[in-house]
Amino acid sequence: MPSKRRLRWAALPLGIASVALLSGCTTTQLHGFLPGFVDDGPAATNHTDMVAGLWVNSWIVLLAVGVITWGLMLWSVIAYRRRKGQSGLPVQLRYNMPVEIFYTVVPLILVVGFFAFTARDQNTLETQYDNPDVSITAYGKQWAWDFQYNGTKEDNSDAVYSMGVQAKATSDGYDLQDVPTLYLPVNKTVKIDLRSRDVIHSF
Fold it and tell me: pTM for the complete prediction?
């Protein structure tokens, strides 16, 4: 049987298995277990799909690189193992230009690619609006948030303040039931001013 035909027959069950595996995934699994996705509703924000796409596609590329690298390592261990009766060092391979160029160019392409896609998405996420529809100040504290929905008056006297309750430690981690929820309007531009009461926090 020709080698191309063998490859086709080998790829067919792999393709069917992949489709069956992916079709059984939940929305959360398909988006890399990131928050903001539900099975019967839209994504949490207009940028959630973009962030999940960068995350999932990055993992797919990295997994492919990992599988190829592990395969080459395993092949080298088996193909170049010490045989019975052999002694001393094997023949050393040096100054192989094609291999060295390959090992230089491929990582360079990966790094440039990851940087380009990350910079593109980060630029979109960090777009600032001079006159946003809504302005919010988020105060980070240990381990929760306070949200101040800024008003339209000059002295900000019409602002609405929402104090967050401290997260409570439990045996399984933290009880997030009392952690405050940030409410945002749909199809409006929002500017969030990040401030901290004690230590640096990730928002």
Answer: 0.64
